[in-house]
Specification:
Number of domains: 1
Helix content: over 70%
Radius of gyration: 18 Å
Structural class: mainly alpha
Order of helices and strands: HHHHHHHH
Amino acid sequence: MQELDSLLELLLMLVTEPRTGVLLSLLVIASFSDYATYKIPNWLTFGGTLFGLIYNSVVPFSTTPHHAFLWAAGGLLIGLGTMLPSYALKIMGAGDVKLMAMIGAFLGVSDILYVILFSFIIGGIAAIGFAIANQALTRMLTNIRNISQIFILTAISGFKPEVTLEKEQSIGKLPYGICISIGATFYLITRQLGYL
């Protein structure tokens, strides 16, 4: 019964608290766009980021009322910084990176870490399912090994080696923006239900 009350509170919050409603709306649009075109438009990510930063400055988080802008900007930077290495290695697109940064601007420092974790878990499950469906699981595991080696080499040496994935090595495109959106939505629901 308490879970039903929490879900009703979440639905009410979508109406009374624009931060969550706007974020979920933008995530739905980003998911449809990524599914249809493998792109997330800049107007969505930049506009959403601007809205998140301004809204959080005007209506601060209850946990950090005096530092709300910095809390939102910190979330943006964590979201951006966490995803940039994957973009640099051409594992994901720029739209995915900007989408995570936008979510960080909406949710702030502590919440974006959960969204990143949930998005990676959902993305991993989706990638495995995608690889199995395309009969490319072995190729995917080889790519993961190679990318891991590049990450380690980059961390140790401080420079990125010139390595590119050949087209025949790829297992195909996965609209990762959908995984990010599902991860963020799942986090918001579990937080509202009191599981986090």
